[in-house]
C-alpha cells in the first residue's frame, strides 16, 4: 500500500516545491485576521492575562500536537482531507464513517469563511480610505469610531469590499494552491511582521507599554470561568487553523522528507508571535487614548487609526498595514476554501475553477447574512448574538475544537500505528511517546472537559 504514495500519484492537486514552500503556505494559512483582528478583541472581552495564559497553554499542549497530526494524516493520505481520511480508515480496517470528519471540516471552512471574508472586506475598505487620504483628498470621517460605524452601517460598501476580497481568493484557489501563495507569503509576511514591530515601538514610546504588558500577561484568576476557557481554546484552534482539515489538505502536498514535528513548532511559533505582537501594538494605544478596551470586533479598526493619525507618515503606515493585513487574510481564506474545493475536484466531474466557484458562491450567499448583521439585522438576536456573532461563536468555539477532538481520536486510536510511526519516522522514541500521549489522552480529554465546563455541567 505504502508504495503507492509517490508524489506522482497526487493527481489534480500539485505539490509544494520545497519544505520551505509548505512552511510558508501553512504559516500563511495560520497568520491572518485571527492573530491581528481577533486575538486582541477576544483577549479584551475576556479580561486579558488569564485568557492569554490559557491560550498559550492550549497552543503548546493541544495546538502543536494537532498541527502535527493534521500534517501527518494529510501526507499519509495524499488526497483531499475527506478522501485521505477514507483511505486511512480503510487501510486501518476502520469504519468509513471517519471520513465524515472531513465532510464536517469542509463545511466548517465555509462557515468560518462566510464571516471572515466580510471582516477582510473592512480591511480593504480601510486600504481604500488611506489611499485616498494619501493622495490628499479627505476620506476619513471625524473620528475613528464614526468612520468605522459609517462603514458598518452601509451594506452596499460592506458587500462591495468583501465580494472583491472573496473574488480574489476564489481566483487564487482556481489557479491551484501552490501558485501565487508562496511569493506573497515569503515577501509580505516579513513586512507585516516588521510593521507590527514598528507599532510596538510606537506603543513603547507612548508610555503605556508596561501597563499593556501587565494587562496581557498578569493573570487574574478570578476572571476565569467556563466561557473564558472555551474562548481561549476556540481562539487557539482558530489562530492555528486547526480542526477543519485545512492544514490536512495542505499536508497532502508535503514532501516525504519533511520533519513534521519541527515544522509544526515553527508554524506555531510564528503564529503566536504575530498574535502577541498585535496585542503589544494595540493595547498601548487603547490605554494612551483612553479608549474602551472592550471595544469588540471593531477594536483594531478603531484604535489603530488613532495612532496612525498621531504618527509622522501615519497615512503611509496605515496604508501599508491594512494592505499587508488583507494579504495575510487572503492566504488564510485560501486554506478555508481548499478542503471543500479539493473534495469537489476529486469527487465530481467539475474541474478546479468550477469547484471553487461553487464553494465560493455558497460562501458569498451565507456571507450576506453577516453583512446584514452589522446593520439591518443588528437587532435580530438569538441567545444574545446576531447572525454573524452566532456563526463566529459556534464555528470557532464549538465546531473547530470538536473537529480537533475527532481528528485526535482518529489518529491516536483508529489509524494503524505503523502508518503513523512511518510519518513521524524522524522523531526520536521519547518525543514520539509524548506526542502519542498528548493525542490519545490530553487533547480529547481537555477538549471534552472544556465543553462540559462551558456548558455548566461540571
Ligand atoms: N487561522 C486563520 C487566521 O488566524 C483563520 C482560519 C481559521 C483559517 C480556521 C483556517 C481555519 O486568520
Shape: globular
> CA-to-CA gap between the ends?
45 Å
| CATH class value | Mainly Alpha
Question: Under CATH, the topology is which?
Answer: Hydantoin permease
In which range does the helix fraction lie? Answer: over 70%
Taking Cα atoms only, what radius of gyration do you get, to the nearest Å?
A: 21 Å
Sheet-strand content, in percent, reads: under 5%
**How would you characterize the largest beta sheet?**
none
Number of domains: 1
Low-confidence stretches: 1-12
SSE-based structural type: mainly alpha
Compute the number of strand runs: 0
Order of helices and strands: HHHHHHHHHHHHHHHHHH
CATH architecture: Orthogonal Bundle
Number of helices: 18
Q: What is the average per-residue confidence, as pLDDT, rounded to a whole number?
A: 90
